[in-house]
Design goal:
This protein folds into 3 domains: 196 residues, ABC transporter type 1, transmembrane domain (ABC transporter transmembrane region fold), CATH 1.20.1560.10; 114 residues; 141 residues, Rossmann fold, CATH 3.40.50.300. Helices cover 61% and strands 9% of the residues. It is built from 20 helices and 10 strands. It has a 6-stranded mixed sheet, sandwiched between helices. Strands 2-1-4-5 form a 4-stranded antiparallel sheet, with helices on one face. Helix 2 packs parallel to helix 7 and helix 4 packs antiparallel against helix 7. It is a multi-pass membrane protein.
């Protein structure tokens, strides 16, 4: 039985895409690095500290080797005093210097990265909220939220640690190999013969094990999705007595997880054993061959110690590169996804404090002239076809029709969420293109069917209609919206938290909060998008009274499902399959004795009679 796979909600950085490095990807990444430009001086200073701390770290093996030779009465370097006390003191001085350099390097890189990342976050968020509605219609909120969290966290990692580590480990590797050759060319040649075998084996084994790990994670995610969807639909599971089926399905998926985990563990064990054998074998070979060179007088014990320590530096650097490279890949992939948002075309608005200042006022007249529209994602499918109607200032125009006829699309066009494919929308006989988008939206209010409240207080949600309104105005709007009494019934009154999306309030209460918000905004044009369709009778009565108060002295576009609520509309626009099927007031449309409106009204009236 095919069932939709749900996201398990697990988030692992290892599961993030790791795209292949190419010129196009690196070009996009440089756009992210451009955010470091304001901190160029600090970045260069941080790089200097990084190089100095890396170079001073590489002096310790040489100093320790010299100390051992000095203890035996030998002098490793002619220019260095062969006193154990002097070399020990010099090592402590260099260690202190190295610690200071590391501190300033870390401090500077973190400061630069955090400030640059804050700029990226601000610009990404600003970009998101100024993108057109169509952008959000084609993307999931979770995906966009991920770009502001998981993707930017990956970019943060590379700015704060990964980039610095790559440079530091590269310095350690390159200079470390050169120093190995200088200390003992023979030992270095022996090591370099073993190195290719280790590298090639690690690459192939690593890829194979990562693939197995990914399969295990996928199977585990599938098992988690079974738990999630089963618990969400537990009433259905019990109603159909499918407990055994669900338990068996989950158990089968867990068996796959176990089998893959054991298989992966087997290969990891083989790989780990091989690597341990090679590493310790190489150490034994170096000490064995180095001891023979010491016995032959070709190198000193101090040189052998220095060589072993430098070998550990080089091995550590090489071992860190696979993880650093994987981190770089993840960060570049994240950069690409963030850049996609930053390069999107926004609406023609400027986000400033002056956005709420209306520069061109609308009295309320609204005209649709031969308007046709198709959504950008489906340009071949017209939702509206040559729609024409006029709503004079202060008039109530109802829009009715079957589901999918295009009623809500008209509301979106009035708000300028989309632009018509053809035809023209005019406000006060002035083309929409002559207004700033912010001027239009500042003078249009909407009360939707499904009201979204923000997770703050009731006061904050009402205030959203007019951010600079005082407390008295908020209370007055609530009273006019029939909301004041139920608000004061809460212990915290207007400071009551509404919960996420307003879940702590009933549907009727949310509607009246939305009406109060619209009253506070005091728009010239009002859109009511099936505002009472999902309410019980008592809530509908209270909301309808509030809506009557809201519609006073303003142009109102009423998208209605219950036709009994629009009898008093000045005109009714009947839409069918994206076209105007009829136009007139309630009496005129019913007196025809036929037509879509007559059919819908008769149908609803008969259904109401049956339910009474």
């Amino acid at each position: 039985m095919a069932r939709p796979r749900l996201n398990s909600g697990d988030s692992h950085s290892d599961d993030l895409p790791k795209p292949k490095l190419n010129k196009e990807l690196l070009k996009k990444a440089t756009q992210i690095l451009s955010y470091l430009k304001p901190y160029k001086g600090k970045f260069i200073l941080g790089m200097i500290f990084l190089i100095l701390s890396s170079l001073t770290m590489l002096t310790f093996p040489a100093l320790l080797g010299a100390m051992i030779d000095a203890a035996q009465g030998k002098q490793t370097y002619p220019w260095l005093e062969s006193s154990v006390l002097f070399i020990g003191g010099l090592s402590l001085v260099i260690l202190s210097f190295q610690s200071i350099m590391s501190f300033f390097r870390i401090r500077l890189f973190v400061e630069i990265a955090e400030k640059a990342l804050a700029s990226i976050r601000r610009e990404s968020y600003l970009k998101l909220i100024t993108l057109p509605i169509d952008f959000f219609a084609n993307r999931r909120v979770g995906e966009l939220n991920s770009r502001l969290s998981a993707d930017l966290s990956q970019i943060q990692d590379i700015m704060t640690t990964t980039l610095a580590e790559i440079i530091r480990q590269t310095i350690s590797l390159v200079i470390g190999v050169l120093l190995l050759i200088i200390v003992s060319p023979k030992l270095a040649l022996m090591n370099l013969c073993i190195l290719p075998i280790l590298v090639v084996t690690a690459i192939f084994f690593g890829r194979f094990i990562r693939n197995l790990s990914k399969q295990t994670q996928d199977q585990l995610a599938d098992s988690n999705s079974i738990v999630q969807e089963t618990l969400l639909g537990i009433s259905n599971v019990k109603a159909f007595v499918n407990e055994y089926y669900e338990a068996h399905r989950y158990s089968k998926k867990l068996d796959n997880v176990v089998n893959l985990s054991v298989k992966a563990a087997t290969y990891r064990g083989l790989f780990a054993s091989f690597i341990i054998f090679c590493i310790f074998g190489a150490v034994i070979a170096v000490i064995w061959y180095g001891a023979s060179l010491v016995a032959a007088g070709e190198i000193t014990v101090g040189d052998l110690t220095t060589y072993i320590l430098y070998s550990m530096f080089v091995a550590g650097s090489m071992g860190s590169f696979p993880e650093l490279y994987a981190g770089l890949q993840r960060a570049l992939g994240s950069s690409e996804r963030v850049i996609e948002i930053l390069n999107e075309n926004t609406e023609d608005i400027k986000v400033t404090e002056e956005d709420k200042n209306i520069k061109r006022h609308i009295m309320g007249k609204l005209t649709f002239n031969q308007v046709s529209f198709a959504y950008p994602s489906r340009p071949e499918c017209n939702i509206l076809n040559e729609i024409s109607f006029t709503a004079d200032a202060g008039q109530k125009i109802a829009i009715v029709g079957p589901s999918g006829a295009g009623k809500s699309t008209i509301a979106s066009l009035i708000l300028q969420f989309y632009q018509p494919s053809s035809g023209e929308i005019r406000y006060d006989e002035i083309p929409a293109s002559s207004f700033a988008i912010t001027d239009i939206r500042n003078q249009i209010g909407i009360v939707p069917q499904d009201v979204l409240l923000f997770g703050g207080t009731i006061r904050e949600n009402i205030n959203y209609g007019k951010l600079d309104a005082n407390a008295e105005s908020v209370i007055e709007a609530a009273k006019r919206a029939n909301a004041h009494d139920f608000i004061m019934g809460f212990p915290d009154g207007y400071d009551t938290m509404v919960g996420e999306r307003g879940v702590k309030l009933s549907g009727g209460q949310r509607q009246r909060i939305a009406i109060a918000r619209a009253l506070l905004k005091d728009p010239a044009i009002l859109i009511l998008d099936e505002a009472t369709s999902s309410l019980d009778s008592e809530s509908e009565r209270l909301v309808q009274e509030a809506l009557e108060e809201l519609m006073k002295n303003r142009t109102s576009i009423i998208i209605a499902h219950r036709l009994s609520t629009i009898k008093n509309a000045d005109n009714i626009l009947v839409i069918d399959e994206g076209r105007v099927a009829d136009f007139g007031n309630h009496v005129e449309l019913l007196s025809k004795g036929s037509g879509l409106y007559h059919h819908l009204y008769t149908l609803q009236s008969s259904q109401k009679s049956l339910t009474q």
